[in-house]
UniProtKB/TrEMBL annotation:
Any Pfam family matching the protein: UbiA
Keyword Transmembrane in record: yes
Stated name of the protein: Homogentisate phytyltransferase 2, chloroplastic isoform X1
CDD domains noted in UniProt: PT_UbiA_HPT1
Source species, domain of life: Eukaryota
Molecular functions per Gene Ontology: prenyltransferase activity
Cellular component terms (Gene Ontology): chloroplast; membrane
Species for this entry: Canna indica (Indian-shot)
Family according to the record: Belongs to the UbiA prenyltransferase family.
InterPro entries: AtHST-like, UbiA_prenyltransferase, UbiA_sf
Amino acid sequence: MALLSSSPSSSSHPASCPRFAATTGRNISIAVGHCPPLPAKGKLPGSLRACSPKFSLRGPVSRVHTRSPGRSSRFVISACSKADAAGSSILTTTLAEFRDSCWRFLRPHTIRGTALGSIALVAKALVENPDLINWWLTIKAFYGLVALICGNGYIVGINQIYDIGIDKVNKPYLPIAAGDLSVQSAWVLVLLFAAAGLVIVAVNFGPFITSLYCLGLFLGTIYSVPPFRLKRYPVAAFLIIATVRGFLLNFGVYYATRAALGLTFKWSAPVTFITAFVTLFALVIAITKDLPDVEGDRKFQISTLATKLGVRNISFLGSGLLLANYLGAVVVAIYMPQAFRWNVMVPAHAFLALGLIFQTWILEQAKYSKEAISQFYRFIWNLFYAEYIIFPLI
């Protein structure tokens, strides 16, 4: 087939690569596949001279170019292949961008904390009862982890939906604030997260754990959603974050793991320690999370300790509470050697405390710049991860 160019009025062709066949001379035969229906006679547009499988137009032609059938076929196939490749590339890019938006929407640093916490507590329960280990329980543990991630996604997602204006100032990289994810899509995601998490927990873990899961979702909702929006009140916000990330996560996972092993719930010294330690740590996270957001909080009149007391004072308050936490861990390990591996617990927490002191000094030297504050907040999350990593070893 030959792709024919005649007068300017008839040189255009559909973007879907129809096959044009032309004869030489004054008579033009054009074969077009998959054409739309013909309009009324006498009203053919200039760009469509033929729309039947074989239609002839007679009239003067200024120039006629002929090409060999083999060469023209290769040209048409190549053009269509390039068009298909371009369409596939656009689809791949769109899917990749949507996946990236969803991942940022989930706030990966919070997912890491949730995953590490649940894995550490399951591991500790198994270490305490090695004779009861049934490796089929790993499937159930995986379901539990997925449910926790769904609950986490619901809580951080609902917060982003109601914080768009603030996030445009404080966190413009978040997908809704950046315009990469629509509010409607965000609602679909958070509702899917909540529904999926509830179904998984209800089917696999019984009514008590389901009620704890619902409590976590409820607290996450009233934290962000009007008319409650308890994040506006520092004390209420701290208590919600400490309860959800501290008590509910640790108690719920440990309880569910012992139930899966056929055991009644019983507090052990290490689990009591990690629950108290992480609850206080979550309180510190709740305090320091507002440090990078002072500018936007002041603009939207969100009252936080950081806006009231200042960045420097809150940084020292958070560091002081964490140092007290680490000191308590060292003291507990020394006075209860029968319950803890003091040769692991003491040096590990002493090392983490020194790291915190050094990072606080760096923040002071940087004059509390926005980048230094963000780095300090990320370091606190790294300390949070580290505690769960060493927990099964203590």
